[in-house]
């Protein structure tokens, strides 16, 4: 049960929060006949919409924590709060870019395993330049990098491989070569962060191709199989290594 009085969200950023904790947004208390009621301050209204990310849900004028982890905050725009945890099971979210595995063809729709509770659907027309005559060559077992346009608890997840302008923008069928593996969702968010040190350090070791899916899947392809496996092992281990340990491991590999 959440307490009647919560804690200011800004004060808990970077700290561990537990399910049931109530986070108060920038506001003041206004006494009235019904007692204390949280109201957003008119003078500090954000310029944009405040986003409630994974691990949180709205509760009145505050945010209720629904899973254990570290509270994160992005102040850009209206701002966003979310809980960063070591969750392994992926829940589809609209706008997420993920790696799916084609499991079946059902008429004009492909079924993809995205690591969620149910498969996602992908229309053959959701590719750049696709028409009824010019269909994409998608086979069962292919890897698809796409984006969710529909993702909620009441509807089947739906993916596309084009952006709002109809361009692929890097999405589509991933090459047959390479290596696909799975990591925690927390590590994926760390790797997708702007100017990620891990990616920058690996790029100095070997040239390679990398595709990161928000569903915890990573596809890697280097010049040789040995280099590919080395990068895979480093990415899997970096979740449990300190920055200093990672730098030492990379230094040994570059020295060889």
How many beta-strand runs? 19
| CATH architecture annotation of the largest domain | Beta Barrel
The whole-number mean of residue pLDDT values reads 82
Would you identify the CATH H-level superfamily of the largest domain? Nucleic acid-binding proteins
Q: N- to C-terminal separation?
A: 56 Å
Tertiary shape? flat
CATH class designation of the largest domain:
Mainly Beta
| CATH fold label of the largest domain | OB fold (Dihydrolipoamide Acetyltransferase, E2P)
- Beta-strand percentage range: 35-45%
Write a compact overview of the structure shown.
With 256 residues, this protein is an alpha+beta fold.
Question: What would your notes on this structure say?
Answer:
This protein has helices at 9-12, 185-191, 197-203, 225-237, 243-255; strands at 7-8, 16-17, 22-24, 27-32, 35-40, 51-52, 56-59, 62-65, 69-74, 80-84, 97-106, 109-113, 120-123, 143-152, 155-160, 172-174, 179-182, 208-212, 217-222. It has 256 residues and is α+β, with helices and mostly antiparallel strands. The protein has three domains: 1-26 and 50-85, RNA polymerase II/Efflux pump adaptor protein, barrel-sandwich hybrid domain (OB fold (Dihydrolipoamide Acetyltransferase, E2P), Beta Barrel); 96-173, Nucleic acid-binding proteins (OB fold (Dihydrolipoamide Acetyltransferase, E2P)); 179-254, Ribosomal Protein S8, Chain: A, domain 1 (2-Layer Sandwich). It has a five-stranded mixed β-barrel with strand order 11-12-13-15-14. The chain has a four-stranded mixed sheet with strand order 1-3-8-7. It is flat and about 60 Å long. The model is unreliable at 28-47 (pLDDT under 50).
């Amino acid at each position: 049960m959440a307490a009647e009085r919560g804690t200011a969200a800004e004060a808990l950023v970077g700290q561990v929060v537990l399910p049931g904790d109530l986070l108060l947004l920038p506001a003041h208390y206004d006494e009235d006949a019904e007692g204390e009621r949280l109201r957003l301050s008119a003078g500090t209204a954000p310029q944009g919409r405040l986003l409630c990310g994974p691990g949180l849900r709205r509760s009145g004028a505050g945010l209720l924590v629904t899973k254990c982890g570290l509270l994160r905050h992005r102040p850009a725009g209206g701002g966003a709060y979310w809980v960063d945890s070591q969750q392994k099971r992926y829940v589809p979210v609209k706008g997420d870019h993920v790696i799916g595995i084609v499991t079946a063809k059902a008429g004009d729709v492909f079924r993809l395993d995205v690591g969620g509770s149910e498969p996602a659907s992908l229309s053959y027309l959701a590719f750049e330049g696709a028409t009824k005559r010019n269909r994409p060559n998608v086979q069962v077992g292919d890897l698809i990098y796409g984006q969710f346009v529909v993702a909620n608890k009441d509807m089947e997840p739906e993916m596309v491989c084009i952006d709002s302008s109809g361009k692929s923008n890097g999405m589509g069928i991933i090459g047959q070569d390479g290596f696909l593996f799975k990591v925690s969702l927390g590590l994926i968010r760390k790797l997708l962060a702007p100017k990620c040190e891990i990616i920058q350090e690996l790029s100095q070791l070997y040239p390679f191709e990398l595709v990161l899916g928000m569903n915890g899947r990573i596809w890697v392809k280097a010049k040789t199989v040995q280099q590919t496996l080395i990068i895979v092992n480093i990415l899997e281990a970096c979740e449990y290594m300190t920055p200093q340990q990672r730098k030492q491991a990379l230094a040994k590999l570059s020295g060889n």
